[in-house]
């Protein structure tokens, strides 16, 4: 019969860390691709109005935002304290809206251009005159799909 001996001197092998950099770079690449950055810096402040019946927009990549509100404190010396229009990252006038809509359509694929929705994000204390002017310019630009952003309001019953 053979005699079996147990060697007490053997340790378990160490875990190989050779593939660790590959895993780290794969995770880094995943988060870089899947993270979306904020594309517009707000230059106006606004308090959204409240509404009772809201529907959520399905495809947010087909939405162009028009912000209307009081300029931030750092811009009030230049632009005053009345409500102003912000298109993308800069202040604009009502006359700039048609060019803005045209550039937004050009940035989309041909088959998606007629599905573009314009979202108005307006301060609740903004006077209706500027909103009517914006709507008239949107009609001239044939941007007839319009959305008003609001917060869910409480029922008053």
TrEMBL record:
Highest taxon of the lineage: Bacteria
Matching InterPro entries: ExbD (IPR003400)
GO BP annotation list: protein transport
Gene Ontology cellular component terms for the protein in this record: plasma membrane
Main location: membrane
Pfam families in alphabetical order: ExbD (PF02472)
TM segment ranges: 15-33
Localization, UniProt: Cell membrane
Isomerase recorded as keyword: no
Name of this chain's protein: Biopolymer transport protein ExbD
